[in-house]
Amino acid sequence: VALTRSLFHLVWVVVSLGMIMAIQPRLGIRRSVVGLVIPLVLVGGWYAKNQVVFGFFGSSSWLGLSLAKTATARLDPEDRGALVADGVLSSWALVKPFSPLERYEAAAGMHFEDSEVEALGQRIKASGHPNFNHRGFVDISAVCRRDAFAVILSQPSLYLNSVVTAVRRFFSSAVAYPPFLDNLVVMAPVYRFGEMTWSRPVAVAAAFGGALLISILAALTAFRQGGRAEGFIWLWVIWTLLWVLVVGSLVEVGENHRFRFLVTPLVWLTMADAGRRLWCQLRADSLASCKKPQEE
Known about the structure:
Helix content: over 70%
Oligomer: single chain
Largest sheet: none
Distance between the termini: 58 Å
Strand content: under 5%
Shape: globular
Number of helices: 14
């Protein structure tokens, strides 16, 4: 998943693998080492390739553009223009994040060369949408990242408001997204039913919060009872849920509900396991109460 979604950063991978190593007595040292090395080589190698080829260490060069949405783009237009005029921000701060390449070129009075590699040199995709994989966006994103950090440091309250908005977005319907509108028209009855039931923000927040609470209690119980391996599994669930919520909200405002959708199976599996445990407990209590009269 770290190679397909940039949200799952190398930091998440390393901590997750560390938890796997913590339960090594059950897996065996050899299997644990192999399970640790292969993911690190794959993910770390991908990051290293991007550093050598594009000049950034990561899986995606879009971080600066995402941060621009959370900070720079939320400045008052007049204030943003003044900061650009004073040289605090670049001229690209005046461009809406994730705009076509030509708008960035016009703002900076420059032209990006188109790579011979189609994926890196094509400006418009076959769908008619801008190609944000164009080589020029690597440089644009790097500058936008510096601009965003400058805004965050000078106006932290503005950034915090964006984070709050991102958290609210996190618990909204995962299918309420512009590219999906045509599909929603076709599936209108199902969509409306979902919006009235499981996709309501209150229901989504309750399920996510419930899964997080269940995981915390399960981890504490497992460690208290000596179940070290099970305890670390629950710690991984907690780590992953919090990572997606916290990190996603800190670096992006807009697609947060899609981030949550990635861990929705984990949420429902956690809830299902809690239901199973409750059922077993109730059944055990019922059997115990049935045996007491016989013993008497």
